[in-house]
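Everyone, carefully examine this protein record:
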Amino acid sequence: MISFMELDQPRARGLAADLDLSQIAATPAEPGSAAPAEGRAPPITWEAPFQWGMIYLVAVVSIEQKARCAEALRTYGLTPPQFAVLSNIGLLEGVTAAKLARMFRVRRQTIAEVVASLSERSLISIQATTGRRDRQLQLTALGRQRRDEANRAIIAVEQQMFETLPAPKLEGLREALVEVHRHLGIGV
């Protein structure tokens, strides 16, 4: 049995849109399970007569992770892309926007918009070097503080999402995903 805890019904229906729903029975959440978050539909449990594929399972967890992280970051006035940029600037002090664009596989204009919003809020500073494209990005003290606060919130989301896994299984999952990342050449 696969449980889509905390997914609202419209999103769950969208995820299952390509399935023959006559083969799948939706049942309410098990008695004693946690109440749904305010404004969300009750959790749905799907009983499937087959084993779910890995890509599908990873995608469903990813969708839920993105939603929960976005919600946690809102508390700090950040979007997930802004947090990703802040985190990477902190790790790669002096990185350029062009390098970030290559790392995230997005257009330079996309990164430029995120960088501009972070700069306007005094979370990063832009240091001119030899040319406009070579400007180095650095966290300000406020940016470092905001990144650290938001990072703690993201860690709490991760802990909540994986709290049912014993430590050895969680470490095994992490190692497997790192290996898949390396195999795909997307780094970790």
